[in-house]
Design brief:
By secondary structure, this protein is α/β, with parallel strands linked by helices. The chain has a domain of 262 residues: 3-Layer(aba) Sandwich (Rossmann fold). It has 17 helices and 10 strands.
Length: 508
């Protein structure tokens, strides 16, 4: 009867959406990753797929594979199937189990962990001070940790149901128990660290598995961008604010450009005119493709607006530095050249940070996650420099049904992890979580920006960007960034010191 009910519900949704007039443009979820890569994740039906690349690691980073359980929450026969989950260990700095030296764990998110040990300089910079064992665990269905061969095979209807954040957290728990046993490190405290979606996982892991993790550093974790907790237009409002603070004329130019693009596109041979004006590598099928490319560039510049480059300043420098009297779209193109570089032609089908996933590309995974539980209702409001675009759950559900055969569950994250009334709830329940943010990051609108208790703390900077605190130290780092990292280290040191005192008291 339950199966029949689901079939009827599914058919009802198909009928509902097939009789509703919807504009099927992709819902954009600006990418959730601590690394600035040439990719913007969004639901797409394009068959033009590109492959990811991997980086080699120094010898001190050793790669291992754990025989991971497929389904932690079911006792059916298939649940006991296993797959190889990759994790990387660096023991060069570790003080050893005898000294109960800590274990710092990077919770991999929606990408391969190939480059993470080198990219997350915060861990390698501070491991010597703490004499910490460094562990990097890959998220299931990403990189080499795919249960069913290739990502394409893993995305089949009957298998992708095992692909969700709750299963991923349980994976981390199993791997960490195994590592503690293998290294005889039962009394070594674990600090979990993550950025962006991984930051969300780190905070949730501390709440769900407090017996395994002493604390969590959750960098740029937008855990409040679900349901109606955060204003839907918050992300694009901050992007707009970032540009306007750099240059009012730049902001005004961008805001006016959208209608001009549409006006030119509506004329005979208008798309060809736009192609020539922006030196595009291929013909445009619609003005949306060009506007989507520019949207990617602006949001990426704001989200990763880090020193010393400051991409927003670079883009606006190009726009404002165009010759006096230049056409408004020539000024916009000058911003593209300033940001991307002077190229023979520009590929808008990929976008500055966009792309469609290849057979084994991580983008397949995030497309699925954002069509199942990670539903960010991001909209563009009238208060931004972008064309207004409200979030339409019906339209989004239609796209997900068309792509995966199932509608998203937009309320599941707050049901399973919480989020509503977070101050009231976590004040009396959680502990030892750092929520770090940079307020230039558009995702900070959905971050925790106020202390919840004496041990659940918000550490932020006015000028910081997405996961900037996780980058390695550089001589050019401004004082405010150094102070942010030092504060985080001081908090973590306090947790560990208290842990050692409590452990010693229990052993007396």
């Amino acid at each position: 009867m339950e199966f029949l009910r689901l079939i009827i519900q599914y058919l009802f949704l198909l009928i509902l959406f097939s009789t509703t007039s919807l504009s099927l443009t992709p819902h954009k979820i600006p990418r959730l990753t601590p690394f600035y890569r040439t990719r913007q994740y969004r639901l797409s039906s394009s068959s033009d797929r590109t492959s990811a690349t991997s980086d080699s690691l120094p010898a001190q980073f050793k790669t291992y594979y754990y025989n991971q359980t497929l389904d932690h929450f079911n006792y059916g026969p298939q649940s006991y199937a296993t797959f190889k989950q990759r994790y990387i260990v660096n023991s060069n700095f570790w003080g050893g189990a005898q000294s109960n030296s800590p274990i710092f764990v990077w919770l991999g998110a929606e990408s391969s962990i190939d480059s993470h040990p080198l990219g997350i300089g915060f861990l390698t910079d501070n491991a010597p001070r703490f004499k910490a064992l460094l562990v990097y665990i890959e998220h299931r269905y990403y990189g080499e940790s795919i249960p069913f061969g290739t990502m394409k095979e893993a995305m089949k209807d009957e298998t992708r149901g095992y692909f969700n954040s709750a299963q991923a957290l349980a994976d981390y728990a199993e791997v960490l128990l195994y590592i503690k046993k293998e290294y005889s490190a039962q009394d070594c405290p674990i600090i979990v660290v993550g950025g962006s979606y991984g930051g969300m996982l780190a905070s949730w892991f501390r709440l769900k598995y407090p017996h395994l993790s002493l604390g969590a550093l959750a960098s740029s974790a937008p855990i409040l961008y679900f349901d109606d907790i955060t204003p839907q237009n918050g992300y694009y409002s901050i992007v707009t604010k970032d540009f306007r603070e750099v240059s009012e004329s730049c902001y005004q130019t961008i805001k006016k450009s959208w209608s001009i693009i549409d006006k030119i596109a509506s004329k005979p041979y208008g798309l060809s005119i736009l192609r020539r004006k922006f030196k595009l590598c291929q013909d445009l099928n619609s003005s949306w493709e060009l506007m989507d490319y520019l949207d990617d560039m602006y949001t990426g510049a704001a989200q990763y607006n880090s020193p010393p480059e400051y991409p927003v300043t670079v883009v606006c420098g190009g726009i404002d530095g165009a010759p006096k009297g230049a056409h408004i779209l020539d000024r916009i193109h000058a911003g593209v050249v300033a940001r991307v570089g002077n190229q023979p032609c520009y590929n808008v089908s990929a976008g500055e940070m966009s792309g469609s996933p290849g057979e084994d590309d991580d983008s397949w995974g995030w497309d699925w996650q954002s069509c199942s539980e990670m539903v960010f209702p991001i909209a563009r409001g009238n208060d931004s420099m972008f064309n207004p675009a409200p979030f339409n759950l019906h339209q989004y559900s239609h796209l997900c049904i068309d792509t995966y055969g199932v509608p998203p569950r937009p309320h599941w994250v707050t049901t399973y992890y919480g989020g509503h009334d977070i101050k009231l709830v976590l004040r009396n329940f959680g502990s030892n979580i750092i929520f770090s943010n940079g307020l230039k990051d558009p995702y900070s609108i959905a971050g925790v920006l106020e202390n919840i208790s004496d041990t659940i703390l918000a550490v932020y900077t006015q000028n910081g960007s997405h996961c900037l605190d996780l980058n390695g130290e550089r001589a050019t780092d401004p004082n405010w960034l150094t102070e942010q990292r030092n504060k985080e280290i001081e908090i973590i040191q306090g947790w560990i010191t208290q842990y050692y005192a409590d452990l010693q008291a229990l052993k007396k």
